[in-house]
Amino acid sequence: MPSKPPAPITIDAVYAAPGYLFRRMQQIAVSIFMEECKAFDLTPVQYAALIAIHTHPGIDATRLSAVIAFDRSTLGSVIERLQAKDYIERKPAPEDKRIKLLYLTKSGAAILREIIPAVERAQARMLEPLKPTERKTLMGLLVQLVDLNNEASRVPLRAEDALEHLGKAG
Amino acid sequence: MPSKPPAPITIDAVYAAPGYLFRRMQQIAVSIFMEECKAFDLTPVQYAALIAIHTHPGIDATRLSAVIAFDRSTLGSVIERLQAKDYIERKPAPEDKRIKLLYLTKSGAAILREIIPAVERAQARMLEPLKPTERKTLMGLLVQLVDLNNEASRVPLRAEDALEHLGKAG
DNA sequence: CCTAGATCGTCAGTATACTGTCAATCAACA
DNA sequence: TGTTGATTGACAGTATACTGACGATCTAGG
């Protein structure tokens, strides 16, 4: 088969490019999340951080960044905002003066319980235009792709490593 | 079939959520793009803007935002940076004093030609972990999903509308 | 004990994104 | 023609993201 000639430099090539589609889909996802959750004053990132702190009480900021694969620098301001809203509190670690341990407040635990249905509605809406079979296929491929590309991002996901400091058996 | 009990509030639910996966994949995509294109000092957004201006010379900022589905406010600073790098120029429109028309400079056209191979390497790398069949399936579903969710984002893509001002037949 | 290297939180700087607002300008209609 | 309403570019304010650097602190090795 003759190889295709080089594609002309045109915007149509961008529309079909994986990077463009991922960016677009991410924007759509955030938009849907914010719409469903507008009663709660929580962003997707803040929600993920709350969930992670709920799952791992007493985690520190660096490990939290590994658990949700968010940049450590960015996480600083996210934590600040969650603390300002009284959803989390930070306590100094007795055995390591560098570390501040993160815990949910009662407010934080409460808003987490309340927001769950809205978040699930949002997640469902993102995939709603597809047929059920297609949704499963897409999610399956995406889980695979994100996992196999894990090391390509600046902050690879380290779900297990992050548990070690909590004294769980490795 | 008995319905599943409500999922416990845990970080594992987040790992499987579409919104989380889209965010993660977008970050990975940007990271790969920047790595492949680090010789060129162009971000993915700036690249898309350049391509769009190349395809539609004399477009204005508002229509450009519709053509690449980027926020108009954000686009202002993107244009500023591209202009500072001497990749584009802005000329006032004679018939409408509000509008500034965008054109590629020779530098802009040149860097666009040079960067294409790196961009294509980046796009290929994003999907590399998947088998060829899976790549096609994923891209097909993603194109569909982005298209069907077009109106859900703040800045829906308006590829055709944006051409009208250039005098093309509708 | 004391230093070399690693780690933690933080900060400065840059770049997307989105919300809401504004003055200048244009278009349409009474 | 004169005013209303829409559009354009710009701006302020907030929130992610990433790079690179920094002081404080901890750990290991000698």
Architecture blueprint of SSEs:
2 copies of one chain form a homodimer.
Chain A: H1 11-15, H2 18-36, H3 44-55, E1 59-60, H4 61-68, H5 72-84, E2 88-93, E3 96-104, H6 106-127, H7 132-148
Antiparallel strand pairs in A: 1-3, 2-3
Helix pairs in contact in A: 2-6, 4-5
Chain A binds a DNA duplex (30 and 30 nucleotides) through helix 2, helix 3, helix 5 and strand 3.
Quick synopsis:
Chain A has 170 residues and is mostly helical. Chain A has helices at 11-15, 18-36, 44-55, 61-68, 72-84, 106-127, 132-148; strands spanning 59-60, 88-93, 96-104. Chain A has a three-stranded antiparallel beta sheet.
CATH class label of chain A: Mainly Alpha
Unreliable runs of chain A? 165-170
Largest beta sheet of chain A, briefly? 3 strands, antiparallel
Helix-residue proportion of chain A = 55-70%
> Overall mean pLDDT score of chain A?
90
Shape of chain A: globular
The number of strands of chain A is: 3
Named CATH topology of chain A: Arc Repressor Mutant, subunit A
Overview of this protein structure:
- The structure is a homodimer of 170-residue chains.
- The termini of chain A are far apart.
- The first copy, chain A, contains 7 helices and 3 strands, in the order αααβααββαα.
- The longest helix of chain A is centred in the last third of the chain and has 22 residues, at 106-127.
- In chain A, α4 packs across α5 (72-84).
- The first copy, chain A, has a 3-stranded antiparallel sheet with strand order 1-3-2.
- Chain A has a single domain, classed as Arc Repressor Mutant, subunit A (Orthogonal Bundle), CATH 1.10.10.10.
- Chain A has helices spanning 11-15, 18-36, 44-55, 61-68, 72-84, 106-127, 132-148; strands at 59-60, 88-93, 96-104.
- The first copy, chain A, is mainly alpha-helical and 170 residues long.
